[in-house]
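Researcher: Structure prediction, please.
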Amino acid sequence: MVNIKELNPEASPQAAYGARVRSAREARGWKQDDLAELVGYSGRHISAVETGRKPPTLRFSRSLDTTFGFTGTPESFERGWGEIRNGSLLEGFPEYVTHEARAVELRMFHIGVIPGLLQTPAYARAMEEGNVKRGTLTPEQADERVSVLAERQATLARPRPPTMLVVMDESCIRRPVGGAKVMDEQLRHLVEFARLPNSMLQVAPYDIGERRPFNLPINLLTMPDRSVIAYAESQAQGHLDREATFVLSALSAYHQLQAESLSQAESVAMIEQLRKGSP
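Model: Predicted structure follows.
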């Protein structure tokens, strides 16, 4: 007699997803191995997803939709996967990502942490492991955040990539994350980014003082129709703004920030000095 684990769909979005997989499978009279063969995964993998021990992926969800005939319907497992993924992300951020993937120009300003699009996998993983240790994320949510970041980075590596203008507060490159090896790799990656033909990298030094116009991270996206969207984050949420008055004011402040910051050559020199252990 096989012991069938009781499921609690209300425990979490991931648990609800797993319960739905089991329900759809059993409604068709399939065993886990039957479904596994149809979707191209192992029976053990199906069991782990159904019981909430393993988070689903986009590929797995699309395979389920094809198998069950749920593609493009309200019952879509891809939609359920999106609810799980977005649960680990800051409010407002998923909508921002859809615009980011279409932008022709990105202007970014960050404080304290290397911008996500410029993070190495090891740096990103170290950041999320810190969140797990503090109890602000589960290991599964941390994995999902790293996965989402990799997807964002891959989206920008297209035949005609967007222009990327990045200003980082000096704290971004001086804050040690993940240990010396991780930081050296990350700083080397920034230098390589600065060499790209579609990029501009600047550091806003500490001595910019009160002339720094932003106290929070902000991204400005120029879309294919030349409209501009602003995205700003606080500790609790992200906020998209298309209102012309705010966007134009933010653009003007960003230009002032660029003028006050180090040139790209000076910024790269500062990063190289840090790699060599110089103050």
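Model: The beta strands are 105-110, 163-169, 199-204, 218-222, 228-233, 238-241.
Researcher: Thanks, that helps.
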